[in-house]
Amino acid sequence: MGGIGQETVDLARLVHNVHEQGFTALDKVGLEGQRDQGLVSTLISRDLSGSDDLCVSWGKILPGQHHLCHHHPDASEFYVVISGTPMVHLGGTTYRAKPGDAIYIPRGTSHGLTNDGDEDVDLVVGVSKPADWQFIPDE
């Protein structure tokens, strides 16, 4: 086969599965030394996929965990809630999200998540840079 858009691709580099990748703990620290909480599995990034324009991950916030409020001066972000009903902190507003919600976080906007429920919160997370965005804690 040939033609436009028919080049051979490296599926091992372009296709990643959350169940095969596994999760790592978030590792940021807040303004008073508090630890960021939650798990992440990076699925698309510069290093993993060769992306030059975005990073996509699967996030998991366990019951009782809080993903620190922070902002990115150099990147926008989005969340798509897959399961659970987290409290989303977005700018000066806090609200209860539900599965199916898509949340756009403009560059520079403070945001974070609290799982005060009994089930895991699963979400797809996207950032408008493939790597190396700044994480500035707001709490």
UniProtKB/TrEMBL annotation:
Molecular functions per Gene Ontology: metal ion binding
Domain Cupin type-2: 60-125
Signal peptide: none
Metal-binding is among the record's keywords: yes
UniProtKB keywords: Metal-binding
Cited SUPFAM superfamilies: RmlC-like cupins
Database matches in InterPro entries: Cupin_2 (IPR013096), GPI/OXD (IPR051610), RmlC-like_jellyroll (IPR014710), RmlC_Cupin_sf (IPR011051)
PANTHER family: CUPIN TYPE-2 DOMAIN-CONTAINING PROTEIN (PTHR35848:SF6), OXALATE-BINDING PROTEIN (PTHR35848)
Protein name: Cupin domain-containing protein
